[in-house]
Amino acid sequence: MQKKASDYLNLLFDIGELADLVTGSSDLESFLELAVDLVARHFNAPVCSIYLYNEKSNRLTLKATKGLKPGAVNKIHMKPGEGLVGRSFETLSIVREGNAGKTPGFKYFKEAGEDPYNSFLCVPIKRGVEKIGVLVVQHRDLNHFEMSDERAIWAVVNHLAGSIENARLLIEFSQTREDAEAIDSLVFVKGNAAAGGYALGKAVVLNEQQKSILYDPVPGEDQFIKQDFSLAIEKTTQELKDLQKGFEQKLPESASLIFTAHFMILKDKNFIGRMGELIDEGLNPVDAVRKVAAKYMAVFSASPHAYMREKSQDVEDLSVRILNNFRARDEKNTYEKGNIAIARQVFPSDILKYVSAGIKGIILASGGVTSHVTILARSLQIPLIIAEESGLLNLPGNTTILMDGDLGNIYINPDKKTIKLFETKAGVERQAHSASMESTTWTKDKKRVILLANINLLSEVPLARTLKAEGIGLYRTEFPFLIRSTFPSEAEQYVIYKKLFDEMQDHPVMIRTLDAGGEKTLAYSDSPKETNPELGLRSIRFSLKHRDVFEFQIRAMLRAAAGKKDIRIIFPLISSLDEFLEAKQVVYDCMDALSGEESEFNRDVAIGMMVELPSALATIDEFAKEADFFSIGTNDFIQYLLAADRANKMVADYYIPCHPAVNRGIAKIAEAAYANSIEVSVCGEMAHEKEYIPFLLGVGIRILSVDPQFLPMVQKTIMNLSMADAVEYAKRMLSETTVKGAKKVLESWKF
């Protein structure tokens, strides 16, 4: 035993020397190889390995090993929590197993060649609060490692963490080499599913390099004359007109708004005219475009107003188009039909351009995305995956990509077997979506349930009608506001809402007032930056603050609804009865104004509210006496009730739809609604999740509103369920006092 302790002392001494040695190392890999060799020798262990954590990809990668197959280095990856290594990293605790292969959660990698090794000891490597990786030692003998080994390896790792941290600071990697290695190792990337569906196509990476034509000299550009400039302007104008025309069917409510800024700039004599003047003065046409564009971009970028700063992007985009058209290149050459776009970030207008060009799928490699981009992709039925893997931005052109937007999986250069598997799945899904639906929905014991559709864009209405949705349970009015540079006028909104009401004939339509703010920011509103925008000036608060904008929208709704039946206006994010009554009074004031103007409008619209906040839940009985109906937005309801941002990975596990507080809250809302004889519906994601549908029906919800593509599945689920079973199930869920208990009921109950 004394010898063992002495070995550990020597080991710590050598690790200290290793920290000095790193300054002379050629790279981090050689440092890690020395470290695993040293630890393996002093622990008398045939295997020692180091896994390092990459925050961008959110995975642990085997970076060095003594004893396992060398070919496994950089090829074995695990997510935090995955396998024994992932568990140690996630929990920041030592894992010691005497027979690892028989341990629950053990993850086997055939390529590692670790079959002969039974005993397993691993410890997380961290430096302060920063997680760095995991160190593992393995041995053939069963139960080889003891408690003393735990203490020793913990001390070793504390020294090693500092050395690795120093190595990161002292050793510079060639970015080109790093990118190449990342690309070579990319075969499969796990991302987050944002918009479902499958897509197979060639990768086209859309990054900042595409704009280099605006900044970098291009050989041969000095050959152009003023006639080429005029031709480039003509081509650009026609290109924008063609793009806009392509949106008319996909986005009738917004087609005329998308390139408004571009057309206005093209008409600006100080922009195009100044370019012409510089050419007449002897400047090369390409340089003239660059010079004027740079001036405009600098002025706009320096503005204190957000909407003006956004104009800089419009100028840049337009100028790149003009320069591309000097060479008879257009956007179709950038992202050809059938390709999969990979970008660091996108704006709603980018999504629209991609769709117009025929892009089949979109991958965002930055890890972040706003909800309106996600909703827009879903509405346009474009698969969208968010993956924290910067290596995707360095993929060679024409790399084959397979996207599984339902699971968030990305396959790089997939084999024929994988492609065939997904083509089969896609075929099955197409059949499911084209499956005929009954015009009305009933449970097995003949209880009526109404299925409505959530709509973001007018282009989704035909699908909702084809799938026999009985009406619109939520029409989000945000997109005409989000994709343009000024507030849409009353007249512009009237045209949109009139089309919606006309297409739905006399089916019920619940139309939500502007839900702006939070992450759905309107750059041109010039609202001050908020520390916590989700709890800031958003939704109904924004509308009441900007009374003129609110009144324009309400007037447009009332006028468009003239002569229609069953039109319902919903206010989002209501927090108090005072707020609801104030918003309601705005509707009455608009009615009085329209009456005075002798305008045609609908005086019989119902006025209801989204139930999303704990304050609304606490006073739900009072709301039920004033509102004509309730709509439960379960996404925000759960987030605010549990104080858990579901988009935040750090607290995503706290977003629990079956939490007892959520269950009882929904039941309380339904009870208050029926006690006051008003309708209540659910329009959040819970409404289309199979495991929660029985509970919603069981507590008395009889109206569900879901995205159109989910209608067949939801109807089938309901028709295979008896209401009596649903009521019994809901009682069991409501009796549970813990999340664990509720999950147990959720997993065990069979229908």
Largest sheet: 8 strands, mixed
Rg from Cα = 30 Å
Q: How many β-strands, per DSSP?
A: 23
Count of the separate structural domains: 3
Instruction: Kindly report the name of the CATH homologous superfamily of the largest domain.
Output: Phosphoenolpyruvate-binding domains
Strand order of the largest sheet: 7-14-13-9-10-11-12-8
Question: What top-tier CATH class of the largest domain fits best?
Answer: Alpha Beta
Q: Fraction of residues in helices? A: 40-55%
Strand percentage lies at 15-25%
The N- to C-terminal Cα distance equals 61 Å
Mean pLDDT: 83
Query: What fold name stands as the CATH topology of the largest domain?
Result: TIM Barrel
Q: Structural class given helices, strands, pairing?
A: alpha/beta
Count up the helices: 28
User: Regions with pLDDT < 50 over 5+ consecutive residues?
Assistant: 168-184, 329-333
Q: From the coordinates shown, what is the CATH architecture of the largest domain?
A: Alpha-Beta Barrel
Shape: globular
Describe this protein's structure.
This protein is α/β, with parallel strands linked by helices and about 750 residues long. It folds into 3 domains: about 1-170, GAF domain (Beta-Lactamase), CATH 3.30.450; about 190-415, Glucose Oxidase, domain 1 (3-Layer(bba) Sandwich), CATH 3.50.30; about 440-750, TIM Barrel. Helix content is about 45%, strand content about 15%. The chain contains 28 helices and 23 strands. The strands form 3 sheets. An 8-stranded mixed β-sheet has the order 7-14-13-9-10-11-12-8. An 8-stranded parallel β-barrel has the order 16-17-18-19-20-21-22-23. Strand 10, helix 12 (about 350-355) and strand 11 form a beta-alpha-beta unit. Helix 8 runs antiparallel to helix 9 (about 285-300) and helix 17 runs parallel beside helix 19. Mean pLDDT is about 85; it is low at about 170-185 and about 330-335.
